[in-house]
Amino acid sequence: MEQYIMKGGNPLKGEVTISGAKNAALGILAASIMTDETVTLENLPNVRDIRVLLQAIQEIGARVEYVDTNTVKINGSNISSISIDYEFIRKIRASYYLLGALLGKYRKSQVALPGGCNIGSRPIDQHIKGFKALGAEVRIEQGMIATEAESLVGTHIYMDVVSVGATINVMMAAAMAEGKSIIENAAKEPHIVDVANFLNSMGANIKGAGTDVIRVQGVEKLHGTEYSIIPDQIEAGTFMCMAAATKGDVLIKNVIPKHLEAISAKLVEMGATVEEYDDAVRVVGIEDRLGPTHIKTLPYPGFPTDMQPQFATLLALSEGSSIVTESIFENRFKYVDELTRMGAKITVEGNTAFIEGVEGFSGAKVSAPDLRAGAALVMAGLAAEGITTVDQIEFIQRGYEAFEDKLTALGAVIERIPVDDEKAVKKFELKVG
Ligand code: EPZ
């Protein structure tokens, strides 16, 4: 097991290039096996969740060729099983995308039920509702969820909850159903548009992705394609916050500024400078402390829940009182106790965090409770006085490619060392002084 160790105080300066969007890539990877022809995926983020899902599709017979770190060729013609039940797959929720992809292609699928997550219970009732509406039988037995359909027939589905995963899963199954489907109250995230564009590049007929009504005309077959994943707006937003938190000046390259609107707007409201270019944004922090604001997480295009821990951390270092309301997940403030150990003044009541900004944080030993909170704690350490260690970094590595390399290139003093290795800590402390 490893941890990050860092010395705070250096403003981040320079350029960072954003990787492909993890949450688009996971849906696209699942959809790529819906054809028997070869699919080439570029700008694939080299992160743990992607490697695990690639391993899962190989286990059932898909051929995967690693062209380079961020490019793979996939061919699903040799798939010999529709059942995904491996220990390693239970670790990532996105394995449930294989339910919709295999159901669409083979009219049946079976995947180990995703475990609970550190940010909430995360039910999949809307996924099941959509599959049933298309004519599938869905059974849950021995920790597996199984779907089977004599035939999949297009239908009108109203999602009771705006769900990214359910929208993507049902869209995939509907893409190869007979006839037309309408998915109402659909999620509108950029990664849903990316999955729809990918499926259309394979010959699917999907319209309206990015709005709350998606229309799908089912097709018999999908063909091979070459596709490049969109940039990860959450990775971009994380680096934007880091630039502001360390009073730095960072050019964040390979982004789609439109996807960052809610993030940019809040940073400007707090007093940071955000300059937008065609495929980059520049964030410049200020010498004084940033100002307060209120944040409420909402489905896209509202403020993204995946940026909530990063902004709460930034607000904990800003002037005045701020309020952060988490309306998507029921347990996404677990990092607050860790931040408190660094000097933050935050009280959480239900799904709202009340923040009193402080002058600065002092370094401490903290633990990453989940992916985005882990990134927020690293940001806190880079802004803090002294040495901070963040352990359980396997959470962070699920969604951030070459995280410490990208930070080091921006001037951060950060390394990855074994957990509980006091010698390594001493060596780092001696080196950084
Ligand atoms: C996706 O999770 C992302 N993960 C999450 O990112 C992200 O936080 C979330 O969307 C919201 O944007 C991936 O794409 C792999 P939801 P997902 O279904 O699809 C409830 C990260 O940091 N719900 O949109 O699981 C659910 O409980 C991760 O990269 C139901 O009630 O999220 C939640 O309250 C964390 N029934 C809300 O909807 C369902 O069937 C939104 O969940 C499905 C969801």
Description of the molecule:
This protein has 433 residues and is of the alpha/beta class. It has 2 domains: 2-19 and 231-432, Enolpyruvate transferase domain (UDP-n-acetylglucosamine1-carboxyvinyl-transferase, Chain); 22-228, Alpha-beta prism (UDP-n-acetylglucosamine1-carboxyvinyl-transferase, Chain), CATH 3.65.10. The chain is 32% helix and 25% strand. Strands 22-23-1-24 form a 4-stranded mixed sheet, sandwiched between helices. Strands 2-15-17-16 form a 4-stranded mixed sheet. A 4-stranded mixed sheet has the order 4-5-3-14, covered by helices on one side. Strand 6 (83-84), helix 3 (97-106) and strand 7 (108-112) form a beta-alpha-beta unit. Helix 1 packs parallel to helix 2 (48-59), helix 1 runs parallel beside helix 3 and helix 9 runs parallel beside helix 11. The protein is globular and about 65 Å long. The two termini are 25 Å apart. The relative contact order is 0.15. Residues 22-23, 26, 93-94, 120, 122-127, 161, 163-166, 187, 305-306, 328-329, 371-372, 399 line the site of ligand EPZ.
